[in-house]
Amino acid sequence: MSSSYLITGATGFVGGHLAEACAAKGIAVRTIARPTSDTALLEKLNATILRGELGDPHLLGRALEGADVIVHCAAKVGDWGPVEDYRAVNVDALRSLLEACKGRPLKRFVHLSSLGVYAARHHFGTDESEPLPARHMDGYTQTKVESEHLVLQYQREHGIPAVVLRPGFIYGPRDRTVLAKLVQALRQQQMRYIGGGKGAMNTIFVGNLVDAIFLAIDSPRAIAQVYNLTDGEFVSKRQFIDAIADGAGVDRPGGSVPLWLARLAALMMERRARRRGATEAPRLTQARLKFLGLNLDFSVEKARTELGYRPRVRFADGIQQTMAWYRENA
Prior knowledge:
Blueprint: E1 4-8, H1 13-24, E2 28-33, H2 40-44, E3 48-51, H3 57-64, E4 69-72, H4 83-101, E5 108-112, E6 123-126, H5 139-158, E7 162-167, E8 169-171, H6 178-187, E9 193-194, E10 203-205, H7 206-218, E11 226-229, H8 237-248, E12 256-257, H9 259-276, H10 286-293, E13 296-298, H11 301-307, H12 315-329
């Protein structure tokens, strides 16, 4: 293992779990955190915390001192808003980080992307050989594609030892964003199964993702490669939603909506919201329709073969841990 990791986004969900795992392994952690970010967990882990913005070249130079592994978890997420807002964080700040890495003796640069970079259609075992669309439905997925291209460009042109990881929907303890919204929608009876909820989810437990990050750091084969990552088992939309409802002690959805009708509703809701200049996403968007309605089955065979990826935590156990944390902290 390396002596020191710079983890961007360490105050967030995935970055926090990674920092915790690093501390357990005796790996020193460094991070950049905004002045308003909650750093209580990182302080307990004795992480080195530099306050400021990720795109600040001077601060990046200080943050990189002594670090030989970079794990880039920081990102602007969501499914609504101007693409420029996403690009400022997901592409421009990343470019500043990559520039600061040029010429440094790094062991690895791990870039966390997303399975959202693939086309918004049904997927049945899609692997990394599938070309990515040039245009996407929202600012997040659009700029995640752009960020992947940027990382791989710097790998080719400047020799940065980069690897791209594409996790699916990440769940686990300490998720204070998506999980809370799903429970709220269930509690308010605003959620329905789409197409009967039969389609596959692309879930990955946060602990499995952390394991994959360490494998990508240590495997010589990983440089310049891209890897899909999920829990490696079939989890249906209905199974996923029901597990959250049961774990939160709320009613399961009361009915199902055909996919074609949900697609039409999403288009209408988005159109109205844009006409109003809404800053908040409508109840149903094309991104949420993909999440809840499309079959999202992706192959993780490349990660199994090249990285030795073997998910330790099964979905049933992972979601149980997740909902136990939610009940204690909601």
